[in-house]
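hiii, so i know i said id send this last week but things got crazy w the move. better late than never?? heres the sequnce for the chain we talked about at the cafe, plus the structure i predicted for it. fair warning i was half asleep when i ran it
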Amino acid sequence: CQLVASFFLIFIFLMLTNGIHINIKGAEWIPVLWIGFLNTGVSCFFYYSTITKLPISTVAILSYLDPVSAVILSAIILHESLSLIQIFGVMLVISGAAYKLEQVATVEALIDVDKLIIRSNKLDLENTKPNYSQIKTEQVKMLTDSLEDVENPIY
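okay and structure toks below
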């Protein structure tokens, strides 16, 4: 849905500013469709469908790794050389993300422990609940006894 909306917004913007001039012939469409559909469409679909299953704190931290993966993959696949500052930046981002993920995992573990404590307390409360059917029976007995007293007053 987001991809389709962004496509239409960019398409409208291009039509209003420059117009669209497509000079792609025959077999040149195959790589364009490959890049557009598979690389962008399918990967974005998997990306957005996956982040809905993760906690927002984890998604926020992992989003910092997107540019890092681009730098690393460009060095591996395209054989681009990395400068010392890029290597330092990659190490800094990865170490910061790892540190924050560890903190998030610790906080989530504490939250899970709190939930377990609350559940166990709730179970204890449920086990100590009075038996309402027994109370109703006792109230009915008390009421009938009091009615008998009214019908047979002791003078």
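btw The first helix runs from residue 2 to 17. thought thatd interest u
miss u guys!!
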